[in-house]
Prior knowledge:
The protein has seven helices and 14 strands. The chain is α+β, with helices and mostly antiparallel strands. The protein folds into two domains: 1-45; 61-329, Extracellular Endonuclease, Chain A, CATH 3.40.570.10. The strands form four sheets. An eight-stranded mixed sheet has the order 1-2-3-6-11-12-13-14, sandwiched between helices. A two-stranded antiparallel sheet has the order 4-5. A two-stranded antiparallel sheet has the order 7-8.
Amino acid sequence: MVRKMAFRARVYSISVVVGVGVGGWILGTFTERKRLLQISDKFYDGTHETSSNFCFHKNFPALPLCGTVSAASPIENKVVVSQPSILPASTRVSEIMRYGFPGLDNVRSFDDYVLSYDRRTRVPHWVFEHLTKDKLKYNDAVDRSKCQFYEDESQHIFFRALNTDYKGSGFDRGHMAAAGNHRLHQKHVEQTFVLSNMAPQVGRGFNRDAWNRLEKYVRKLTKKYVNVYVCTGPLYLPRKESDGKTYVKYQVIGANTVAVPTHFFKVVVGEAEDRSLEMEAYVMPNQVIDDNTPLSVFQVPPESIERAAGLLFFDRVSRDKLSAVNGKKK
């Protein structure tokens, strides 16, 4: 009898300890979940959007302090702002990305441009540049011929493009951030030769001709505007096939299956001395283009590129604040 009572007492004691432990875990989990929900509510109601106290993502160079930006919110009722509050005003990145990030997937900053890299396709999602007349001044100390294409070792080896992928493919290693846009320092132009800034482009008739004309045109805009902001990237557009169905098809090259975009885009915003803004948007097919084709043929509504690319350009500027789009006054 005494032995049974001792056994029951021991079982009761163990049950109490286990019960207290489980109860404490449940209470702690409930309390923590409630705290996170309260923080999340504050974060998403917009009142704490720029506060680092409500960030849940690790900070990386070139990324805003928080893991979200206004690109996910409607553009209505937005106003032009001089500097994004989510970045220090003194950094070169904040100058380049002054009017917003198109997206935040695998963003990396270089000394004079910013890119978002697509690990799946091995080419950029987008690159962003800020051009001025002074930054494009000729510097005879800068020699493009000394530059060599090199792999981006900041990317995991699984997701890198290599020079061997392009060799024998018939495609050029086409700059997204143009080498000619970064003339101030040798290091700046060299950094445009990283393969994460490249995409396969048809060479003669496109990269070396029509696309080059568009790049030169964008540089000339610095004579008209105090600041020129340009976003460049690839597109993979659908096409109807003989069976009547629509497909997205694109070639891949090399052992690392680097994607060959069907088209490329440039979205440009020029800022005049009076702070007024004008936007131009272009889409070019990745194919031989007749030299006599005017660039205006390739102008498209910016919204069509946003839909196709899954990006929002210059989202810190309301479209109704633009004084002109593709040369048409609003």
